[in-house]
């Protein structure tokens, strides 16, 4: 614990909206695990965020537990890291309210995720969806995070977080650390296997478009085999080769190889060989996660205990920042 005081701070979160995809994994979760060796890390299951789409209560409960188990299955040590569920730490919702009052309507309305989601679901454009980024800002600022590992799609939310924090600090003096995004080079944007111009998403209606981190070997092989490529049958990174570029990105992320090395490896070979190698690399990457997940899900008591401890550790830190912000704003202190 003492040694951790010197380390820089990392925070990230993932919504329990379904089993994460290979995109979530390569874009964010893999980095979470890697960063946990060198940073003091706070990782949350963002259940408050996930109710903007009104899930069934029983699904929300189950997915929260599953997502928590999955975070531990990645190999995140719950003693060394603080792994918790967002709604177990009330400070998140409390700070989010305060930050709402330091965020302009216009700047929240510019968020592309808000625009996309309100276009896709015009029947449920709720205020929560609109205020989503201020809750995300609260998540990050409460822990005084230096870095936030995310995929490219969340970058704009990090920018607004920085703007809000700078505004608040400008008005009241240093209160929040200004966080920086951490976006890995490969894997920042894993694309759909069926339409490689769209990001891979767990809510895609075509299940062949995404790989779930809990898919079994045969499913992974089948999905990668049927991934959309092009008619050129040559493996190289280039314009107009979105499908191949995407598979190369996935392969690079799983194996640590560069594009040049991949091109050399498959020179003179067709897409069949290439796809088989990509599938094998993905299976090797995900199999241990699935195995650990199945083991953890069989021990709910242990998961509950970890959640409880995580919530306590997170609350201790979050409360400190919340009290400071409230003092600054002028709330009457008892
Ligand atoms: P969420 O739950 O949609 O996704 C979790 C993480 O996965 C990344 N990601 C991807 N990366 C690469 N390729 C893809 N196709 C892909 N799809 C998703 C996301 O960028 C994200 O990093 N708002 C966040 C959750 C959140 C959060 C936070 C994140 C709540 N509070 C505080 C960081 C800090 C979200 O919806 O992520």
From TrEMBL:
Pfam families: tRNA-synt_1b. Transmembrane segments: none annotated. One of its GO terms (biological process) is tryptophanyl-tRNA aminoacylation. Its EC number is 6.1.1.2. One of its GO terms (molecular function) is ATP binding. A motif ('KMSKS' region) lies at residues 199-203. L-tryptophan binds at residue 139. This is Tryptophan--tRNA ligase. It catalyses: tRNA(Trp) + L-tryptophan + ATP = L-tryptophyl-tRNA(Trp) + AMP + diphosphate + H(+). Coiled coil: none annotated. The gene is trpS.
């Amino acid at each position: 614990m003492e040694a951790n005081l010197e380390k820089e701070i990392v925070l990230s979160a993932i919504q329990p909206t379904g089993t994460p995809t290979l995109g979530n994994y390569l874009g964010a979760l893999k980095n979470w695990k890697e960063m946990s060796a060198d940073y003091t890390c706070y990782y949350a299951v963002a259940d408050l965020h996930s109710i903007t789409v009104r899930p069934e209560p029983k699904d929300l409960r189950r997915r929260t537990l599953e997502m928590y188990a999955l975070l531990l299955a990645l190999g995140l040590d719950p003693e060394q890291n603080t792994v918790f569920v967002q709604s177990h730490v009330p400070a998140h919702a409390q700070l989010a309210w305060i930050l709402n009052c330091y965020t302009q309507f216009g700047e929240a309305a510019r968020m592309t995720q808000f625009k996309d989601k309100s276009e896709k679901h015009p029947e449920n454009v709720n205020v929560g969806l609109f205020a989503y980024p201020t809750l995300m800002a609260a998540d990050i600022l409460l822990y005084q995070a230096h870095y936030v590992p995310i995929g490219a799609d969340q970058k704009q939310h990090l920018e607004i977080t920085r703007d809000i924090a700078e505004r608040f600090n400008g008005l009241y003096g240093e209160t929040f650390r200004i966080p920086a995004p951490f976006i890995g080079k490969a894997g920042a944007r894993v694309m759909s296997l069926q339409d490689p111009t769209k990001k891979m998403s767990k809510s895609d209606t075509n299940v062949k478009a995404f790989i779930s981190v809990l898919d079994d070997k045969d499913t992974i092989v089948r999905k990668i085999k049927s991934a959309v490529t092009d008619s050129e049958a040559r493996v190289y990174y280039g314009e107009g080769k979105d499908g191949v570029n995407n598979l190369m990105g996935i392969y690079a992320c799983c194996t640590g190889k560069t594009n040049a090395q991949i091109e050399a490896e498959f020179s003179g070979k067709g897409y069949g060989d290439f796809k088989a190698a990509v599938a094998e690399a993905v299976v090797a990457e995900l199999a241990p996660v699935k195995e650990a997940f199945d083991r953890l899900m069989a021990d709910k008591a242990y998961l509950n205990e970890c959640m409880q401890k995580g919530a306590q550790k997170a609350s201790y830190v979050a409360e400190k920042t919340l009290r400071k912000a409230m003092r600054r704003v002028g709330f009457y202190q008892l």
